[in-house]
């Protein structure tokens, strides 16, 4: 497939996806379609262990959904677009490989939701975040009301969504919305460093840890423990687990193969 609004570079088992729709990289139906296609392909690509998502330029990670496209749709059309965005964000959230958002500028509305769907978030010191939807008479529709509160709690989530105010990278770090804030010029290098470190980890263990956290976090404790137990067994049965345990007992560095 030829991508109109995405580029993807694969090097050293890391895929760097750039949303390239300048000047502010808004999400439209075509971007969602391309994201779904590329992430699904990367899930199956054995030469890729980690995915990094960023936006083109320094102005915006993603400045929300394409409002002009939204305005052209009736209720049936907007529901279809909303269903598509939900499916793509869930795909990114649940792909078995770690996904890092490298937030290079403003992340508004759907862009904020895209970042929340990623496992880890590294922000430029110039990054800003907002859910401006209530100012348009709507609400976040791509998972924002749900994923945000699971990170910051209901009180802060209501504040950010009700008022629609902008917060900077420093405040986002304080709220644990991002894992790290770095200078703009170091953003991609830092994200790729994190990604490279993760490529050295056993892939099955990372996938099972991700599954346990993602699915166990939304259920009661006993159900979560059951999910963890099943994923532990899967990780334990992997070739990398055997290698890791052998390397530990033999006091050597493990050589993981991703199986």
TrEMBL record:
Q: Which domain of life is it from?
A: Bacteria
Listed CDD domains: crotonase-like (cd06558)
UniProt keyword annotations, A-Z: Lyase
Q: Does the keyword Flavoprotein apply?
A: no
The record's listing under InterPro entries reads: ClpP/crotonase-like_dom_sf, Enoyl-CoA_hyd/isom_CS, Enoyl-CoA_hydra/iso, Enoyl-CoA_hydra_C
Could you say which protein family the record assigns here?
Belongs to the enoyl-CoA hydratase/isomerase family.
Its protein name is Enoyl-CoA hydratase-related protein
């Amino acid at each position: 497939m030829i991508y109109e609004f995405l580029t993807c570079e694969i090097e050293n088992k890391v895929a760097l996806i750039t949303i390239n729709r300048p000047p502010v990289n808004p999400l439209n139906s075509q971007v969602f379609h391309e994201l779904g296609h590329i992430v699904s392909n990367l899930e199956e690509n054995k030469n890729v262990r980690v995915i990094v998502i960023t936006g083109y330029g320094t102005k915006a990670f993603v400045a929300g959904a394409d409002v002009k496209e939204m305005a052209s749709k009736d209720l049936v059309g907007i529901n279809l677009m909303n269903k598509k965005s939900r499916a793509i964000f869930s795909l990114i959230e649940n792909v078995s490989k770690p996904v890092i958002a490298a937030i290079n500028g403003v992340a508004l509305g759907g862009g904020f939701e895209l970042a929340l769907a990623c496992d880890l978030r590294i922000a430029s010191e110039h990054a800003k975040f907002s859910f401006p939807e209530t100012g348009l008479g709507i609400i976040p529709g791509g998972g924002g009301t749900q994923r945000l509160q699971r990170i910051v709690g209901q009180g802060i989530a209501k504040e950010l969504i009700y008022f629609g105010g902008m917060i900077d990278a420093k405040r986002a770090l304080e709220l644990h919305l991002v894992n790290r804030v770095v200078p703009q010029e170091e953003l991609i290098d830092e994200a790729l460093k994190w990604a490279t470190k993760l490529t050295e980890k056993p892939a099955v263990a990372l996938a099972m840890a991700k599954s346990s956290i993602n699915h166990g976090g939304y259920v009661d404790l006993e159900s979560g423990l059951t999910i963890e137990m099943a994923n532990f067994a899967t990780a334990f049965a992997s070739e990398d687990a055997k290698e890791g345990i052998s390397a530990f007992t033999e006091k050597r560095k493990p050589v993981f193969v991703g199986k």
